[in-house]
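Forum > Structural Biology > Help requests

Title: Can anyone predict the 3D structure of Tetratricopeptide repeat protein?

Hi all, first post here. I have the sequence for Tetratricopeptide repeat protein but no way to get a structure on my laptop. I'd be grateful if someone could post the structure tokens.
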Amino acid sequence: MILIVGIMVLSFANTAAKTNPSKIDSTHQRIKAQLVLEKAKANKDWVGVSQAYRTIMFHSPKKEWLGYADSIIANALLTNNNKIIGEAYLTKGIIYFEQKEHNKALDNYIKADQYLCKTNEEYTIHKARYALAQTKYYLGFYDEAIALFRQSLPYFEEENDAATLNTYHALGLCYNKIKKFDLCSYFNKKGLKLAKESQNEDMIVYFKHSEAINQYSLKKYEQAVKELKKVIPMLKQKNDYANESVAYFYIGKSFWDLNQKDSAISYFKKVDVIFTNHHYIRPDLRETYQYLLNNAKTANNSNLRLYYINRLFKIDSILNTNYKYLSKKIHKEYDTQKLLQEKEALEENLRNNSVKNNYLIMGLLITMTTLCIFHFRTKKRIKKKFEEALNKSNENKKVKTISKIEEGELDINQDIVSGILKNLEKFEANKKYLEKELTLHKVSGYLKTNSKYASKVILKYRDKKSNEYISDLKIDYIVELLKSENKFRNYTNKALAEEAGFNSTQNFTNMFKKRLGISPTNFIEELKKQYPL
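Reply #1:
Sure, ran it for you. Structure tokens for Tetratricopeptide repeat protein below:
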């Protein structure tokens, strides 16, 4: 699966880049957009509100884009304008696609298509359809992707050379996947011809790359090696290590099928070097390590076998995250259970050989003793940290009172500050902080003010930045649940994270440890021992 240069994704990214040239300018643009947003809300101009949110999103950190995309959709729906609504869903789909959440991207692209098809906006209709097809390709639904690409192709051929080239390339990839190699060659040749005519040097290398891999599929191994070796220098010049890795992989497979095993292994090792340097992998490249592992087994090299087994574990972890749907369709000679069995056997064999060495036995005994001491000290440290955390938790229950609001201290009107503080108390009392994906913008809405004022008041009267303030409220809430209700002590970290409204389990555990100096797991274990309900 070669990378597709998606016209839809590129246009979206370029828009963001053009509107975000510098941090200072971005802040200025956000302030201007915020003013436009407030005015549009006052006039119930939902089109204006939707567009203002889009501008704010482009000038915000990418981690906040999904929240703004929801706001764009919510206000777009109020317009009853199919174009505005369709583009809103398209925007959210693009964000999910870039995050490799392909199924969620697909859901939003389908909704976008449903609305845009009711308009006369042909470019936007085909842009959404291309995005939908691209996602189908990444999910492995090649026939459906082909149908969608071909629906949009006549329009692109009339209107846009760049989009046409992308579609030719995508169709070539899809036809290769369903083993219609003649059609793959047909679109590669058309694409190469158009790229030369339109002087699109960037795409020439990708059509040559695609056709060389197609030659491998046709079992023309020597031709595949010859052509792939030609494109590698061009890929290196573009710093395209992803497609460079794919080229090495197919050269390696070609040499392997030509029974030139040593040459094959040398190219498979180049794939491993790129993985080491860039952590780039995709489902089909996993097969590289099956060749390398089998070769190490033939050479009876236990250390190398163990190295490649551990590599496969790491790769599977990445694939299950980034390609969780497509990776299931890839045949795996070495599945997890088989890898575990081989790893255990190798480690056992290495241990048995090592036991013969008396000095190593002594080293192991020393190590075990050290580990025991370390374990004892760790348990003691955990107990101390738990007691400190419990004391801190009790301190946190004390409500901070504001004795006096000093006039002009924050460059904010005193009455406004008083209003914000009242709303802040309501926000805390009503546990609004448990909401998921709670951005400063959303908190500002609850406080009935803007983000700037909200952050200033929180910093002054809660002694924290807004993100830390929200995280600490969530953690304190969970601690009280654990102390007072037994059932929560049996919850997983994932369930507790959901209960507190964290976006991920990792974020929850990190924030818990930062807040209390102890992990949730250790805190619960000590709580069960020392304070049974």
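Confidence is low (pLDDT under 50) at residues 1-21, 398-403. The radius of gyration is 29 Å.
Shout if anything looks off.
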